[in-house]
Amino acid sequence: MAQQRRMGGQPMFIMSEDSQRTQGRDAQSSNIMAGKAVAEAVRTTLGPRGMDKMLVDSGGEVVITNDGATILNEMDIEHPAAQMIVEVADSQEEEVGDGTTTAAVVAGNLLGEAEDLIEQDVHATTIVEGYHEASEIALEAIAEQVNEDGVDDDVLKQVAESSMTGKGTGGLTAASLAETVVEAIRHVETDAAVARDNVAVHTQVGASSNATELVPGIVFDEEPAHDGMPAEVEDASIAVLDVELGVRTGEIDAEYAIDSIDQLNTAIGAEESEVRGYAETVAESGADVVITTDDVDDRVSSFLASEGILLFENIGSSDAKDVVSATGATRVGALDDLEESDFGEADRVRSANYGDDDLAFIEGGAAAETVTVFVRGGTEHVVDELERAIGDALDVVATALDSGEVVPGAGATEIAIADKIRQEAAGIEGRKQLAVTAFADALDIVPRTLAANTGQDPIDALVDLRSAHESEGRAGLITDGEDVTIDDPLEYGVVDPADVKREAVESATEAATMIVRIDDVIAAE
């Protein structure tokens, strides 16, 4: 239907007839419903007993995961309000690497509470103001929950283990993987900060997840350019080239007439001379490992193999960049410019075969400034989920080490936040107090969901948690095998980086308030 306004008694059309417009409560209800639906889709994945989701795309590709960000990104979500919840998870993942499910679930519950307030004729602006005030109180509560003992390796392992518990880790326990994760992050710690980008994760199907290991260097998919090349080079001098090592060809097609055998032999001789020149230049440079992003003539490869030089050709630009970053090499675009000062260094470069795949390892020396968690697993689904779990653990350990702040997990921090908000709400006048209290109620979704996912009654568990918090000062829902108890999470090593909680509160509040303020949706078709 075309939208129109009357001027001087005449209708004036200002919108296309194909446009659709939803206003007022209908618009708010539609947006809130969409946001809640998305949050509900990931709610059951929360916690150590969270369930997995199987996502199948139109091409039949299957993803099995309980990672909130992965689930939301794999879902085919079109509703714009629902997309905002996806953006909450994306923001959480980008900033701190974990807590995506918590952020999405809290955002959805904030919308649910806002819907109830709107039904009570509380204005959207009042809700927004109350939510923002409550979020400030929440940040204060998080600061009060920070563990005063600081962060050491034991705490970092607890952070990593808490992050991975309940996720797919194959045959490995979260505790054993946590040691690898902490070792990797400690390896790239600097005086200024943690160089998180210097930790890579490389997956390889074909063995038990128990074969997962930390490689002091980088790993990429490639095989030597010639079978006769050494499989391993010690104390390697590495040249990284953007050069084609073969007969130069012009961009214009051309034909040459050869009238005699002598002319043919001369042409072949010139070509052989050019190719051998490339090979000799590389060999004389002193490099014993050569990596190039371009093609290499088989004759060059054969000559270099006879000289004991290990060559990898057609390397992707990103892999070449990683080699440069790890080894200190300089990428060279012309063979005549290659000098010893351009070489990178590594203790060892080796090639290894894993079933149908060949991998190159550059280890030790300068390359050891970058480390790779080499993930193994029996199936593609196992290694994919293991990669996601380790990636999240690396992120949260780096976050915890950078900030030096951790808070109790297992729902204890959310219980503490909600309690403080309810106390502060008593001093807030007017209807805004309802919104502040609703914010506290929304945070209850975290311990309630943790309880439901462990088979407990959510209401009874929430009552017991609040009571234990008031009497003990700290109470979470601890899952130990089949047993579920209410106790101090710090005593069980269940901890999260404080920044994960802060980011979840801030991003969930931002998304929820943005959606609540929308009272007019105009969609073109």
Automatic annotation (TrEMBL):
InterPro entries assigned: Chaperone_TCP-1 (IPR017998), Chaperonin_TCP-1_CS (IPR002194), Cpn60/GroEL/TCP-1 (IPR002423), GroEL-like_apical_dom_sf (IPR027409), GROEL-like_equatorial_sf (IPR027413), TCP-1-like_intermed_sf (IPR027410), TCP-1_chaperonin (IPR053374), thermosome_alpha (IPR054827)
Molecular-function annotations in GO: ATP binding; ATP hydrolysis activity; ATP-dependent protein folding chaperone; unfolded protein binding
Source superkingdom: Archaea
Entry keyword Chaperone: yes
Keyword terms of this UniProt record: ATP-binding, Chaperone, Nucleotide-binding
PROSITE patterns: TCP1_1, TCP1_2, TCP1_3
Protein family per UniProt: Belongs to the TCP-1 chaperonin family.
Name of the protein this chain belongs to: Thermosome subunit
Source organism: Natronorubrum daqingense
Lineage of source species: Archaea, Methanobacteriati, Methanobacteriota, Stenosarchaea group, Halobacteria
